[in-house]
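Structure, all two chains, one model.
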Amino acid sequence: MLKIFTSSQSGDLNIVAIWMFLIFVAVTLYITFWAAKKTQSTNNFFTAGGNITGFQNGLAISGDFMSAASFLGISGLVFLSGFDGLIYSIGFLVGWPIILLLIAEPLRNLGKYGFSDVVSFRLNEKPVRVLSAFGSLSTVILYLIAQMVGAGKLIEILFGLPYITAEIIVGVLMILYVTFGGMLATTWVQIIKAILLLSGATLIAFLVLNQFDFSFNQFFDAAVSTHDNGLAIMAPGGLISDPISAISLGLALMFGTAGLPHILMRFFTVSDAKQARRSVAFATGFIGYFYILTFIIGFGAIILVSNNPAYLSDNGQILGNNNMAAIHLAHAVGGNILLGFISAVAFATILAVVSGLTLAGASAISHDLYANVIHKGANDKSQMMVSKYATIGLGLMAILLGILFEEQNVAFMVGLAFAIAASTNFPILFLSIYWKNVTTRGVIVGGSSGLISCILFVIIGPIVWVDILNNAQAIFPYKYPALFSMTITFFGIWFFSVTDNSIQATKEQALFDSQYFRAQTGYNKQRTVNQ
Amino acid sequence: MHNENLFNRLIKKKKRIIRPLLFLTVIPYLTFICIIAFYPNYFSNMLFNSSVSIGIILGFMLIIIIWIITLLYVYLANKHIEPIIKELNN
């Protein structure tokens, strides 16, 4: 299986990849050391002091979003079935205008560390924060497991390290970055990694297109004539089998992005709503460009990897799996040096993404559960301590879960994370910003039924019930639950809000106007009236 | 009272900018998804006897539309919304 890496090339590969990786670790640890001095308060720990510029934040957001899973996964999907990869790319990208137009500014204006601040702005804080924390933590942990398992497998192949060692290295470095450097270090790790990944992918795409004189016509012609499915790779294929699944997946991708806690918390690292807007515009630019690159890389791999015996096992399968298409292509167009560079970049990408996820999880634990529910009025010092312990706890849990799930199929976990984000985090955030009549009861009943139904539908659906639990027939027939669970959430919030006649509900609805004023302007209504 | 009017103007302006842009994001995307769902064969038509299908062209166009929408919003917000917010603070 590891023919390419254990042949005569392996010596060269290891040296380039390992040196690049060591340089990355040295630079990022230095940044962590520098950031640690500036990360003395909880506010700095979670928001980097609010001093990140729109451009820097745009890069950091795209860094959070361009995980190794999406780089290798989407180019692998394009390699396997062509057009279908584009469905994912576009779905992930279309979430960004939604965030920009509906979420970014009110979020920045109303919140402090995370989206839960916005939801609990006028609602009953305790239950709402508990629900938001559950929504955040389930999204973060599922995403984290998927990243950790993918990371272990990738590092095993690229660097020849045992799986468990790889998990421990990733976990320990991530704990160091986050505990000592907080958001400031995590942001800079994310920025460096985003630049490395964009340059590496640009270089591969350039070298590929160079072989076709930059003619897309020649390029696609070559891919069609190489691939077993011929012209079918230019059209929708087997990824989506029925209309309900297509729409359900489409919704999960579009609204899931707007409910990812590690993305939403990035909007608190900039100074104001104006910079938040700029961040999204830059991020959308980088992410869209990145998806175009992965598409070219996937097609490039069809042409240059799928027929080259150096990258195929004895029975004609690609070495490793489809997710290795981009890595093999780097070797095909740029030799051992580019292969080493891309391997190091993939490793850096994993580290940066798990750090961002862990920070979002730590925020849910220390800010929502500890400082506002368990120990209301906790001082800054104790909240900071809890944040650091939460980081260490999440890091150790990530290592453990990564090892436990090694042999499991974890591909569905990112999909489930997106579905939960779309069916719980996004609806409660969106409605609490824009709908006057929302009440605590509505949010709790609607949000938790969305969360539960989403998880339940995945468990009794084809992926878990049939593929993993080996039952003959799925109870819930669709792979993607978002269409149904989102409907349940929105209906639940609507129904249990409009039928809520309690005094509490009336108070919450009365607070809407001043909240809306602040959401749109960033000022408190009272203050401007007085002036 | 002056503030109330100014705030109402802000909201009106915001809605006038955001609604069409939201429409331009959601409708083309849902159309794209619905074609995949109901008429997948439509996307396999090739353009001018090349190997480039309509699906690929529309997909790339969608990426470009999304870019334009975000840039346009930032431009319009800076030009029309920011000044009103500043005025509200004074």
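The longest helix of chain A spans residues 325-374.
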